[in-house]
Amino acid sequence: MPLGDDDVAVMRPETSPGSDLDAELLLTMYRHMVRARVLDERMWVLNRQGRAPFVISCQGHEAAQVGMAMALKPGYDWIAPYYRDLALTLVLGMTPRDHLLALLARAADPNSGGRQMPAHYGYRPLNIITGGSPVATQVLHAAGAALASRVRGEDAVAYTSLGEGSTSEGDFHEGLNFAAVHQLPLICVVENNGFAISVPWSKQGHTKDVADRALGYGMPGVIVDGLDPVASYHAMTEAVTRARRGEGPTLIEAKVARLTPHSSDDDDRPYKTREAVAEEKAKDCVLRFRRVLEERGVLSPGDAEQVRAQCMHEVDRAQEEAENSPLPSPESLHLHVYGDQ
Amino acid sequence: MAVRTYIEAIREGMRDEMRRDPRVIVLGEDVGVKGGVFKATEGLHAEFGETRVIDTPLAESAIVGVAIGAAINGLRPIAEIQFQDFILPAVDQIISEAAKIRYRSNNGFGVPMVVRAPFGGGVHGALYHSQSLEAMFCHVPGLKVVVPSTPQDAKGLLRAAIRDPDPVLFFEHKRCYRLIRGEVPDGEYTVPLGRAEVRREGRDIAVFTYGLMTHFCLEAAESLARDGFACEVVDLRSLRPLDRAAIVASARKCGKVLCVQEANLAVSVMSEVAAIVAEDCFEYLDAPVRRLGGPEVPGVPFSPPLEEAYMLNTTKIEAALRELAAY
């Protein structure tokens, strides 16, 4: 019998879009969401034009990522993200130019110098820990980073994120268990969009929600509407506050939508009905937040178009810079295998 | 100079580095109050406390993965895997993560971490407490692999490994722990990674080996010396990177080569050593390169006659040397 909604460890914060945050902060959230969306869409254009071999998308995850990222201290907290965290990394301080350099495999790609596939984020100045392709391994790195901060007596937290399918991996279990046993300042965010490529949650776990698993680790499990940046911000702020105070880790499940196929190499028609796709698009978090802000008067008529135009302009420039940036030289193949070379 | 067992030297190496550098921590199963199942970490918990000597859940991927994260965030973790046989759940963290982090981040991040693990047979440990799995890690660029054979090297190499900017797998032959004693220099010293050591000089047969087998090879060489054959015994110590120059020099000097390892031979450390000799010493050879290693069976069996049949010993090595001497 799956665990139900009433389990004590699972908390469901009230979601009320746009509540109790000042207009400037709401507007900043909106700008971040649009910026990520515009950049993400541009990457698909470049892929379909044959200029970028691979794209994996954050579309439908922007609200959760923007809300969560705005509750963190960039360059102080430690971040072990996963491949959909484009919006998260932008809020923390990476730029469209950084991501387009990676997309186009340029030498100046700050993630990896063009060595990794796109969306394998990593950026030393912002404590964004480099990630590989095996999923859930980063949960342990975040736990280790949290441990190191605590050994030094700092109050930095470690943030890690992954998809709901990746919670089936052993490293997810080992990481959360370790963090709970040692009461580490770790926040683990599961961005649940319902599908691991083609496989639905019902074939990954036998609990109703991913957050139910927190009970087994003895940590709070929080479910949040990941289409609402404000609710996401509040959930993360609470978890970060607890972690900084030494009160241990939190598992947050953000219910999000995947508005694209898994990647540019996937076709979702065999496993996702067109009705389901249309339903998700109707709840598009960027459009929804725009409507909320317009209703509250935070966005005036014409503001949304202006925000989008500004983002388009920034992405145009970033694309031009990335396209004019050199590819790595073949001689650099051998660099940085070891640190004492 | 003080006389120490192999395991005492390892313990002192960790202790001295922990005293010198507050970034060094130890984590693993039973490493805390108990001091490790072999007592390698005995006394560390009492001296440094549970913040720096951490009993982990029984989960090898977590031990290594957490060490990686801690290393990225500025610490110098020593992760203990209780037996090398149990390192396999952590191989994804070692090969997919630790080995590639510097390369894949274009030098943005490094993983200054040591993974210690006892390996090897001859202790009635059967299939899952006796394996020699070092070759699979030697295949991986980005890793360093070290196997000491003496207390002096155990301490000096371990200190060098802890100070190294990259992940080092430090494999300790468990039979050496209390069997091997030797002098250990006073004060702070390190033994550089990547250098082999000539344990005995000779000009007739070059013997390449490492770990416990080094001691068996030295005994066999002593026996041959009584009959006038001078073997040069080279302890590789560092299996990745291999000391290619030392291998080539001894092979060219002697003209005959015996490679000895406890692990089975297929696609192993001695496959690489033999390949180096074939590539760089062909014109100097007076006999085909010979290799002596474990049999191609999945593990070391428990029952004494089977274990004995599996393991190399001085007699088997001596027989191979005499065959080569007579070639």
Write the layout of secondary structure elements.
The complex is a heterodimer of chains A (341) and B (327).
Chain A: E1 10-11, H1 23-48, H2 62-69, E2 78-80, H3 86-92, H4 96-103, H5 137-151, E3 158-163, H6 170-181, E4 186-192, E5 195-196, E6 199-200, H7 214-217, E7 221-225, H8 229-244, E8 250-255, H9 274-282, H10 285-295, H11 303-323
Parallel strand pairs in A: 1-7, 2-3, 3-4, 4-8, 7-8
Antiparallel strand pairs in A: 5-6
Chain B: E1 2-5, H1 6-20, E2 24-28, H2 44-48, E3 53-55, H3 60-72, E4 76-80, H4 91-98, H5 101-104, E5 114-119, H6 134-138, E6 144-146, H7 151-163, E7 168-173, H8 176-179, E8 181-184, E9 197-200, E10 205-209, H9 212-225, E11 231-235, E12 238-240, H10 244-254, E13 257-264, H11 269-281, E14 290-294, H12 304-310, H13 314-326
Parallel strand pairs in B: 2-3, 2-4, 4-5, 5-7, 6-7, 10-11, 10-13, 13-14
Antiparallel strand pairs in B: 1-8, 6-12, 9-11
Uncertain residue ranges of chain B = none
Helix coverage percent of residues of chain B? 25-40%
Order of helices and strands of chain B: EHEHEHEHHEHEHEHEEEHEEHEHEHH
Largest sheet of chain B: 7 strands, mixed
Portion of residues in beta strands of chain A equals: 5-15%
Chain pair sharing the greatest interface: A-B, 49 and 45 residues
The amount of beta strand of chain B, in percent, is 15-25%
- Oligomeric state of the chains present here: heterodimer
